[in-house]
Design brief:
The chain is α/β, with parallel strands linked by helices and about 270 residues long. The chain has two domains: about 5-160, Response regulator (Rossmann fold); about 165-260, Winged helix-like DNA-binding domain superfamily/Winged helix DNA-binding domain (Arc Repressor Mutant, subunit A), CATH 1.10.10.10. The protein has eight helices and 14 strands. The strands form four sheets. Strands 4-3-5-6-7 form a five-stranded parallel β-sheet, with helices on both faces. A four-stranded antiparallel β-sheet has the order 8-9-10-11, covered by helices on one side. The radius of gyration is 20 Å and the shape is globular. It starts with 6 loop residues before the first strand and ends in a 6-residue tail after the last strand. The relative contact order is 0.10.
Length: about 270
Amino acid sequence: MPDCSGIATIVTYHFVFLLAVPSVNRHTTRMNQRLLMIEDDQRLAAMVATYLGQNGFDVQHCDTAHAGLEYLRGNEAHEFAVVLLDLMLPDADGLDVCRQIRTFPAPQNALPIVMLTAKGDPMDRVVGLELGADDYLPKPFEPRELLARLRAVLRRQQGMQSNDERVLRFGRLEIDLDARMIRLGDQECNVTAYQFNLLAAMAERAGRVLSREQLMDMVKGEPLEAFDRSIDVHIGRLRAAIEDDPKQPKRIITVRGAGYVFAKAQDV
């Protein structure tokens, strides 16, 4: 077989793909992370799987919403680190799939979700975030950006894990940083991995006013992107989960023109 050390460029409607074809095998001791890709475009899925496979991911592909949900309901669900979900599927709307995943029992309901959308309407992205997606990427996209976003989502999920028990308590609200669980009284609050990290970052700085840019940097570890209003969507979802009345929040308070503050003093 001839030596192939060049760069093969493959262009599709959805994906601008720069695939480095190495001339020698690359060996790594790091265990690949499993990714579930729910995408009906077979050619796109194959190229994405190849690229991600070269960069530390073991990709399981399903071409329908039904097949993807069945995988997540099965015995292997706990092995997946992240879901890559297309917005437009032949048998269901990707938004509905996202909504269903968030209704699964723990820990599957907190599985990070990155949505792919070919639609240009920003409202699709807003709705996706509202329904529990952790990030989004419009088509066509650069594979390096996809890889960077996946890694960022996984860093956010894993960044607060430690060996010591850490529980933050504010009245009836309890945030278990190790178990990554939120309880309000005796009821568990279901949120996404991104939203949990966002709440934890605010709670650890209770009483301080934090701007959107500060919050994005704390949770994402990267500079603020143009679509900074996505933080408002996540705040809205958190309020729906932990506030007694989300329309009159007492825990996450808006400071007009400045950002948000997590209240130190809360109900008992």
